[in-house]
Amino acid sequence: MTQPVAARILKAVNVVVALILLTVLAGVWWYVWRPLPQRSGTVEAPVNAAVPVSFDALGVPHIRASSQEDVLLAQGYVTAQDRLWQMDSLRRFASGNLAEIFGPVALDSDKDMRRLRLRRIAEDGYTRLSAEDRACLAAYALGVNHFIATHRDNLPVEFTLLGYQPRPWSAVDSLLISLYMFRDLPPTWRDEVIKRNMLAEGDAQKVNYLFAERSGNEPSPGSNAWAVSGSHTASGKPLLSNDMHLEYSLPGIWYMAHLQAPGLDVSGVTLPGVPGVIVGHNQHVAWGITNLQFDVQDLYLERFDDRTGRYLYHGQVEQSRAEREIIQVKGQPAVEMATWITRHGPIFIADGKERIALRWTAAEAGMIQFPVLDIDRAQNWRQFTEALSRWAGPGSNFVYADTDGNIGYHAAGKLPKRHGYTGDLPVDGSSGDFDWDGFIPFDQLPSAYNPPSGIVASANQNPFPPNYPYPVNGNFAPPHRVRQIRDLLSARNGWRAEDMLAVQKDVYSSFSKFLATQAVAAYEKRNARNPGIDAAVALLRSWNGQMEQDQAAPFIIALVYQHVRSAIADNAAPGKGQLYEFNMGPAVVEKLLRERPDGWFSDYDNMLLRSLVDAVEEGKRMQGRNIERWRYGNYLRVEIDHPVIHGALRRIPVVGKALDFFEIGPVPMSGSSTTIRQTTRMLSPSMRLNADLADWDRSLLNIQIGQSGQPLSSHYKDQWANHYAVRSYPMPYRNVQAKSTLELRPR
Predict the structure, then answer these.
(1) What is the rounded CA–CA span in Å between residue 663 and residue 250?
(2) Is there a contact between 428 and 438 (Cβ–Cβ < 8 Å)?
(3) HEC-encoded secondary structure of 576-594
(4) Is 373 helix (H, G, I), strand (E, B) or coil?
């Protein structure tokens, strides 16, 4: 080949490559860059007066409006700019419409959601709302819809990749997203099924021991948050901290915002798709929320005829109601399903000849309420608890502090009153003996106000006293985290908001340290040297109980716990030990090993040694034979994928590798389910608030990943590094330094 010919070929190849590159860049600009949120200039909108929105360095909108209607409209608009696809996917998930855009892979999820009837519940609940609540939801929806209507050809890239347009937003959609949180916190019906399966072939006394509701050492009250009075702080005013532990997602579940209008000046985290601030502070009050863990779901075994929908209740034949659903499936014919609705709820489980109905507080008439803005406006404890009395669910713990120096705690939510049973197992629906007797009165729910200790602290433990007048059931957490919180807060005074990050960062596990001590003692008591586990025992013997990612001991003890838990559960229900993953598991294991009651193991030390040997062998299979080189972080690794970008583009050569930029991990993690920094492969702190009631501008707030769901936004994952390292950001309230300002102007 002559040199001129080769040069012409090379030139042609370069031109083709350049054209391809230009085409790719043009596509990126058109589909990914062009839809980025507008954070400056003006936008015509259906507001009554101009609404300036100042964005700070993290992209947090500070919205000032002359009316509540306008501030909520603007909140809907700016949230949609950053999170529209997340909002749409959440409402689709809750209503069972994911298969319409994802295809058959989402069909089972859609069927589950249709059986839960969330959209029907939301539609019915909307008709029962007050006019004021409906107006708030309508204003927010108007803002979202204005964004959708003006950006039909300029939507976030997920809509382009999946090839569909979002439907208009409605007030019902906002209620749906609230129900999505309600459904997820907590789905206790699964525990009933697991316990029943273990009881089928197990020792009833032992199985009941495993599913304990309390450890006997629960400090009270609260959940996963804390407040300290001025006697413990440098300023003499309270501090309040909150870090809600939820499943990983990209983008994260929370969106930060500051809303100002007459009678409203509130800042904190919001739930995309829902108006108002969920956790944060106003001029006088700060609050945090976490999961109460109380059981609000019961399963009823129905004597049911599939052909007619008739069933027995209290000796009489009743007729259930059939609801038919059409599920659209991308690329396939629509799927029709029917659900029978009994007086106890939908037939949720059909297994062999059994038909089991699910009763859930969210589905009860009148349960859908919207007190969020009442909470946002509360100026004192009385107004705050009045607003909480309207909170139907999910069952929650509210931790409170105010600028007058008060701190408090109150459980909230509609919790069923049961008689003659606790709700821990499916019950006979035909007898009529296990119906709820209304709900526990709000003023009888656990609460505290200005306790003598000056500390309100908890972490999802059971806050109900042993002599509580109503049966208590729930998937409560063991008390290890709350004891550590209280110990750290009580150890010193002079706390500042920034100091609370050290508490939120703490990864000491008293349970894991106890289990390590037990395993080492069992080994030494036997005085039988085993070269295969000597190194592991030496590491556990010198370990300080810190669940740090760069150590081997936390990895060893995590595996030991799994084997000990399985051995104990197998003892109670032979062959079914792997089913047992109850939240209270660590407390049950600790109590059993401390008390060592007869009837479980003839030799507890032998059980511990077997578990230790099996754990070390498993560790060698996972991380090699050199125990000194094991790392807990190689075991507790987290990867957070974008649900659309990962699935749609990951397999494309070159492009797929570049997508690592849009995702997180895998990254090694510190912490465990029994540390203040609660971390598992499924969940971790989703946000961190540290509110300073002496000076709101000294408060700190960060969310897990970033404000925007738009992949090329500078705020897509700009908070992840600091969240991972447990650093935070100032939470501007009075001294907002605007990086840009967008003004919504009347049309």
Answers:
(1) 8
(2) no
(3) CHHHCCCCCHHHHHHHHHH
(4) helix
- For residues 43 and 164, the answer to whether their CB atoms sit within 8 Å is no
Running DSSP on this structure, what letter comes out for residue 268? Answer: E
Q: What is the pLDDT of residue 531?
A: 80
Q: Which phi and psi (to 5°) does residue 247 adopt? A: -65, 150
Residues 620, 255: Cα–Cα separation, whole Å: 42
Give the Cα-Cα-Cα angle 244, 640, 245 (nearest 5 degrees): 10
Contact 391/374 with Cβ under 8 angstroms? no
Helices H / strands E in the chain, number of each? 23, 28
Q: What is the pLDDT of residue 222?
A: 38
Q: Which residues of the chain have pLDDT under 50?
A: 21-22, 24-26, 29-30, 215-223
Q: Tell me what percent of the residues of the chain surpass a pLDDT of 90.
A: 75
Residues whose CB is less than 8 angstroms from the CB of residue 722 and which lie 6 or more positions away in sequence, other chains included: 702, 728, 729
As given in the structure block, the two tokens for residue 491 are: 């150890």
What's residue 187's pLDDT?
67
From CA 42, how far away is CA 47, in angstroms rounded?
13
With 0-12 / 13-18 / 19 or more C-beta atoms within 10 angstroms meaning exposed / middle / buried, residue 209 is: middle
Bond preceding residue 465 cis, omega within 30 of 0: no
* Sign, Cα dihedral of 568, 571, 577, 581: negative
How large is the C-alpha radius of gyration of the chain?
A: 27
Give the up-direction half-sphere exposure of residue 9: CA atoms within 13 A in the CB hemisphere: 6
What sign has the CA pseudo-torsion 97, 102, 103, 109? Answer: negative
Distance CA 224, CA 503 (A): 12
In angstroms, the CA 742 to CA 747 distance is 15
Q: What residues form DSSP beta bridges with 457?
A: 226
What per-residue confidence (pLDDT) applies to 8? 63
Is the bond leading into 186 cis (omega within 30 degrees of zero)?
A: yes
Structure tokens at 370: 């919207």
Structure confidence at residue 188 (pLDDT): 73
The rounded distance, in Å, linking the Cα atoms of 194 and 518 is 29
Q: How far apart are CA 226 and CA 398, in angstroms?
A: 10
